[in-house]
From TrEMBL:
Domain (Histidine kinase) ranges: 242-459
PANTHER family linked to this entry: PHOSPHATE REGULON SENSOR PROTEIN PHOR (PTHR45453:SF1)
CDD domains from the UniProt entry: HAMP, HATPase_EvgS-ArcB-TorS-like, HisKA, PAS
Name under which the protein is recorded: histidine kinase
Membrane topology: Multi-pass membrane protein
Places the protein is found: Cell membrane; Membrane raft
The protein's Enzyme Commission number: 2.7.13.3
The organism's place on the tree of life at top rank: Bacteria
Gene Ontology process terms (BP): cellular response to phosphate starvation; regulation of DNA-templated transcription
Pfam families: HATPase_c, HisKA, PAS
Claim: Kinase is one of the keywords in the record: yes
Naturally occurring in which organism (per UniProt): Gracilibacillus orientalis
Amino acid sequence: MDVKKRMNLFYRYILMTASVFILIGIVILPLTSEEEQFFVLFSLIIGFIILLVLIYHMFENYVRPIRASINVTNELVKGNYNARTYVKPHGEAQQLSNAINVLARNLQEMSIQEKMQGSQWKTVMNNMESGLMLIDERGYVHLINRKFMQMFGKNSVDYIGFLYYDVLQDDAIHKVVQETFLYEEKMTGNITKSINGEKHYFEVVGAPVINDVKELKGAVLVFHDITDLKRVEEMRKDFVANVSHELKTPITSIRGFAETLLEDEMAEDEIKEQFLTIILKESTRLQSLVHDLLELSKIEKEEMKLSTKLIEVDEWLQSSLTLMEQQASNKSLQFIKEIKPNISFHGDPDRLQQVVLNLMYNAINYTAEEGSIFLRVDENDNEVIIEVEDTGIGIPEEARQRIFERFYRVDRARSRNTGGTGLGLAIVKHIVEVHQGTISVSSEMGKGSCFIVKIPKKW
Ligand SMILES: Nc1ncnc2c1ncn2[C@@H]1O[C@H](COP(=O)(O)OP(=O)(O)OP(=O)(O)O)[C@@H](O)[C@H]1O
Ligand SMILES: [Mg+2]
């Protein structure tokens, strides 16, 4: 209350009291004698002054603090928790003012805490790795988080306040919501969605929201992106199918020829030898398949302990080069080496030799006679660059990323003829990656391919 109003009230009280005294004076004075009149007037004036002091005292100690308290209470009602009332150091209204100030302080603390909790909850909700949607018992959307918008697009205004089935078209989601409401239990479902042209798999979990008196108040829907999990599951299934298939062929063949040999005792030595050769060849294939598989699983399980050393490239490549030269000349291939001298870096020499040999074998296998293969080793400040290039059949564009997958072969029949298992590049990629390096491929059909391996010098 401003000062002016307060003073007005004060003057009104004085005016009222003065009127009462004047009235008393008017009534009493004519009834008294002249000597008594002075005494009555004096008494009235003294009485008026005493009353004036009393009114002032009452005003200061009761009316003013109570008025101030009412104002503060009104401010608190409006939500202004900063409001405080004026507290006199003493006086009877002090307790009331004190209580109101304590109340205001508590309210302020509570509102700060509530705000903090609200913002913490918002932070958690918006940084969750899963999409979230809150639906009330009538099916209206009340809340969604940031991840949900990333998954399903659009903004919160396009969802909040709408019925869930109007904003989410998927039948599987409708089913989860309906069953959650019906059974009042956690329900799950799966949906697929295309995001930026990529197919994503989601698990939808619906949980009922039940209040203290066991009434259903709505449901929370949580969307988990399980695309990676699905991919791993599919890869595992593919892997098992591929391994079985790869093992089946040589085993069937070995068994078939062995049975024939046993049954046909009269068979000529020449045929026996032919069959035994096939059995030997197939069992060798089986052995290399099992060897590669074990190798791969060892690397994948991160059991592969690298024995890192300083590799002097010239010396390190010596034995592989001799082997390669021989293989290349068997196929009348030109072998061109461009190795920068005196390169050295840290790595596992045996494993990295495996990388070079695998790439070189591929280059030799997939290049027709009279072609050329190149081995280049270069370096920059941070990495060693190994390039294996050929003038062979090339790799079709759609296969370029897939050739690093286990068992993937562009031409199964051809690769099998060369004794390939389709595991070579998968192993190469793993070894390069445990060295924190990268491998890439460029190729032109019918012209040749080039594999580039980059290994950091320090890792
Ligand atoms: N230099 C290359 N030129 C053309 N195609 C290639 C080349 N290198 C790899 N490929 C293709 O990539 C596929 C996968 O190669 P990868 O080395 O993993 O298997 P593989 O050579 O068939 O068998 P292995 O496991 O015995 O090496 C090959 O089957 C082949 O189709
Ligand atoms: Mg190979």
